[in-house]
């Protein structure tokens, strides 16, 4: 009995110590984190105001192989949104919003985690310094209950570590992106060439849509396939190739268009979603035109390929449209049009 009383006294003592100590811990935290990256703001800002770009390098999302993310239009700027959930941890889910944007200068995020009704408020300021960008993160954490208030003692360290890793990821991603842009600048557009292309394995989806809404539908298909490859299969940027659309070369004249949209992978993976399938592109000879401009403008380049094949009395396969820049809602494209030919 004496030991029970002693135990109760100990519990009450530590409870009192905890209660007193927590009165000195704020309900929520405000802190500022400043980082610099050696790329100009026009390269950096699009990685923050487009949530599909953001989740590729932000370690909170990119490090979790089991995280499934769904994006909502508009896909960039004010009003953009996404939701996420962990397929193996039901308690790990949330929503992320862009509430304000001053292009090239400021962004405001809201991040709701789990069932909490109050969000993290994250304001970002971008300061251009020649070929560098200084990024200032202003973070306001949601109020914590009395029992969870000790989390505020470590929240800043957690954010600092995540942002440190994220900025390293972003630096590497932008390095690859800038190298790719340099390669694109050296391309000769609108000229027909002959190339010998290697075989490729694509994972993608089959789609049928109205011709007058084709490009909008392609952008949706791209997001579906890319999200599956990155989130469900856990592929990093250097583990897959540039997306390819395959269809009949002359069906641009039809009211309805059927196509396969896929992303190249190095080997077959286990696919649990029946909407996705693999398709192999054979190696061989191709007539090729590199095209840049509105998606509708590609028709002239396709006609050039078909005319050349007819003049050379070559049989043709399905047209392959490789998107060297991802298809986005603005309808601007940089692509490689490849027509397989054989005798």
Tell me, rounded to a whole number, the average pLDDT: 83
Our estimate of the beta-strand percent is 35-45%
Structural class based on helices, strands and sheet pairing: alpha+beta
How large is the radius of gyration?
26 Å
Features:
343 residues, alpha+beta, 9-stranded antiparallel sheet, 7-stranded antiparallel sheet, 30% helix
What would you note in describing this structure?
It is a single chain. By secondary structure, the protein is an alpha+beta fold. It is 30% helix and 36% strand. It contains 8 helices and 16 strands. It has helices spanning 2-22, 41-44, 46-49, 51-57, 59-62, 155-185, 214-232, 298-311; strands at 30-37, 67-72, 81-86, 93-102, 106-113, 120-129, 132-140, 192-197, 200-210, 244-247, 256-265, 277-281, 284-294, 315-316, 319-323, 332-342. Strands 8, 9, 10, 11, 12, 13, 14, 15 and 16 form a 9-stranded antiparallel beta sheet that branches. β15 and β16 (332-342) form a beta hairpin.
């Amino acid at each position: 009995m004496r030991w029970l009383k002693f135990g109760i006294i100990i519990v009450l003592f530590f409870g009192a110590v905890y209660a007193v100590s927590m009165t000195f811990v704020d309900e929520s935290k405000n802190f500022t984190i400043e980082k610099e990256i050696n790329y100009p703001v026009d390269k950096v800002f699009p990685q923050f105001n487009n949530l599909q770009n953001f989740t590729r390098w932000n370690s909170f999302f990119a490090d979790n192989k089991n995280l499934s993310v769904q994006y909502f239009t508009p896909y960039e700027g004010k009003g953009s949104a996404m939701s996420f959930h962990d397929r193996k941890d039901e308690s790990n889910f949330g929503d992320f919003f862009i509430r304000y944007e001053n292009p090239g200068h400021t962004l405001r995020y809201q991040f709701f985690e789990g069932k909490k009704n109050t969000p993290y408020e994250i304001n970002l300021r971008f300061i251009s310094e020649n070929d560098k960008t200084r990024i200032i993160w202003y973070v306001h954490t949601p109020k914590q209950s009395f029992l969870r208030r000790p989390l505020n003692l470590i929240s800043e360290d957690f954010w600092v570590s995540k942002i440190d890793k994220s900025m390293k990821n972003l630096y590497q991603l932008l390095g690859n992106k800038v190298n790719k842009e340099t390669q694109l600048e050296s391309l000769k557009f609108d000229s027909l060439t002959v190339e010998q292309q290697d075989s490729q394995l694509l994972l993608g989806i089959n789609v049928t849509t109205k011709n007058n809404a084709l490009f909008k539908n392609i952008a949706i298909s791209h997001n579906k396939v890319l999200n599956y490859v990155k989130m469900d299969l856990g592929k990093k940027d250097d583990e897959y190739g540039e997306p390819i659309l395959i269809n009949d070369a002359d069906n641009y004249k039809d009211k309805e268009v059927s196509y396969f949209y896929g992303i190249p992978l190095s080997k077959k993976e286990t696919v649990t979603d029946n909407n996705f399938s693999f398709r192999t592109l054979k190696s061989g000879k191709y007539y090729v035109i590199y095209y840049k401009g509105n998606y509708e403008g590609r028709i002239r380049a396709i006609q050039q390929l078909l005319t050349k094949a007819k003049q050379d009395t070559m049989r043709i396969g399905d047209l392959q449209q490789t998107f060297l820049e991802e298809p986005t809602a603005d309808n601007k494209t940089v692509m490689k049009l490849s027509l397989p030919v054989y005798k």
